Amino acid sequence: MASLSNQFRPTNLRMRIRRTNPSISCSKQPPQNNIKVVINSATKNIGRAAIAAVTRARGTEISGAVDKLLIGEDAGKVSGMDEPLEVPILNDLTMVLGSISQSKATGEVVDFTEPSTVFDNVKQAAAFGLRSMVHVPKLELEMVSAPSAFCEKASMGCLVALTLSVGSVLFQQAAISASFHYSNVEIVESRPTPSVSLSIA
User: Fold this and answer.
1) Whole-model pTM above 0.70?
2) Which residue ranges does the record assign to the Dihydrodipicolinate reductase N-terminal domain (predicted)?
3) 64-80 pLDDT, tens per residue?
4) Which of 19, 77, 136, 173 would suit a FRET pair with 161, their CA atoms being 20 to 30 Å apart?
């Protein structure tokens, strides 16, 4: 950030006018600490959309992309962005988490993997001091309780979102609110093609 300053001195008509040259001084802005985000399962459609969304969001940056496919490819190019992010897709979550934890930055892992690997991924993220956000379709309630209990003991935050649909979450909140006023509440969401909404890649 640069600031322009000029000193103006009051002058009297009898005094000789003395002009000073304007000066420019630069001050260094404090560095902005962005939240470093790792996308696990980055080549899925939802992972690609998450990469683009995190890149556009203020205060966040993609610092790792993990998947078993397209290893070595740039995460920005895979997600369809105009410019590369210079973040390669790797297949080793531990290595990516280790590099982020060494930078001592605030980190987050967004996990779109399979139900069988969720608990291990949450444990690894917590071991490196990163919080987790998990969205895995067809994740059963028993599989949610284990990461939740682990994160509670580790005093680490973990968000398990069974659905990322805003409408679905609003319907759930409406049902909870209505249950206090009515003895029987049923909210039905209708979709024209149910098969389209169930297939999340």
Assistant:
1) no
2) 35-131
3) 999 999 999 999 999 99
4) 77
Q: What angle do CA 152, 101, 59 make, to 5 degrees?
A: 85
Q: What Cα–Cα distance (Å) separates residue 14 from each residue in 7, 11, 20?
A: 20, 8, 18
Secondary element (H or E) of residue 107? strand 107-111
Q: Rounded to whole angstroms, what are the CA distances from 4 to 20, 26, 30, 38?
A: 13, 9, 19, 41
Q: Report the amino acid identity of residue 80.
A: G
List every span in the chain annotated with CATH 3.40.50.720.
Answer: 35-160
pLDDT in tens, 9-23: 555 555 555 555 555
Q: What is the pLDDT of residues 120-157, one digit of tens each?
A: 998 899 888 888 888 877 777 777 778 778 888 888 87
- d(C-alpha 170, C-alpha 38), whole Å: 27
Cα–Cα distance between 8 and 158 in angstroms, integer?
58
Instruction: Retrieve residue 91's tokens.
Output: 């297949």
> Whole-number mean pLDDT of the chain?
77
Neighbours of 178 (CB within 10 A): 13
CA separation for the pair 114, 122 (Å, rounded):
12
